[in-house]
Specification:
Elements lengths: L1 H33 L6 H8 L6 H4 L3 H25 L4 H11 L8 H14 L3 H22 L5 H24 L6 H16 L1 H9 L14
Helix pairs in contact: 1-2, 1-4, 1-6, 4-5, 4-7, 5-7, 6-7, 6-8, 7-8, 8-9
Length: about 220
């Protein structure tokens, strides 16, 4: 009887985990279509195919599922970068991996751009979202460091990373609000041009013939 009770408890936890993931994934699909503003408890439950109000059974409130959803969305993007980084044969390949991973070909569209713009706007008001935003920039800087250090000084890396992040954010914002959408290859090329000019031809040549050093760490998930 004790063994059956333990098994039942484990099965119940598994079902709860599945339901939580289903709600998070449903929230993610809505987020990619409408941004944070369109995420209501009713819409999330309907998208997940669950009865209204069930969200509060698996999460404390709507904000908890939204935070979990943003963490998942950020992890998807970071995983894409890490996969590319690990297959890089040169330091320049690592820089290309960061650029390409931050402009996924199947996600660089107006809806996705506006979804992330809504997150950045919320991060200015919500401390938890702000922490996730800071983790993203820390991971971006770490990935750039894996390509550039110790060939550049730490202050030079910081300056380059600040410009790189500003350019990256600006291209996503433009995709969300420009009259005409931007092709993903165009966006990647613009950021690549910035990197080439900021680093200079001599350093670029060195990066292209230098193998990367060390292992690429896993994405920071946040908490």
């Amino acid at each position: 009887m004790v063994g059956m009770a333990v098994r039942a408890k484990k099965n119940r936890r598994t079902i709860e985990d599945i339901r939580r993931v289903e709600l998070i994934e449903a929230a993610y699909r809505i987020f990619m279509q409408t941004g944070l503003q369109g995420l209501t408890t009713t819409r999330i439950c309907t998208e997940a195919g669950m009865s209204q109000g069930i969200l509060t059974y698996y999460f404390k409130n709507k904000n908890e599922v939204l935070f979990a959803m943003v963490r998942m969305a950020n992890r998807i993007l970071m995983d894409s970068v890490v996969v590319r980084l690990r297959s890089a044969e040169t330091r320049w390949d690592r820089l290309l991996a960061v650029i390409e991973g931050n402009f996924p070909a199947d996600r660089f569209d107006r809806a996705t751009a506006n979804a992330w713009i809504s997150f950045y706007a919320e991060a200015a008001r919500d401390a938890r979202y702000h922490r996730l935003q800071r983790l993203f920039y820390r991971r971006l800087q770490s990935n750039l460091a894996s390509a550039l250090l110790p060939l550049v000084s730490r202050p030079e890396l910081d300056d380059f990373g600040a410009g790189f992040a500003a350019m990256l954010d600006g291209l996503w914002i433009r995709q969300g609000h420009a009259p005409e959408p931007m092709d993903v290859e165009h966006a990647r090329r613009l950021l690549l041009t910035y990197a080439e000019k900021a680093l200079g031809p001599q350093l670029v040549a060195t990066l292209k013939r230098t193998a990367p050093a060390g292992e690429v760490s896993k994405p920071v998930s946040g908490s």
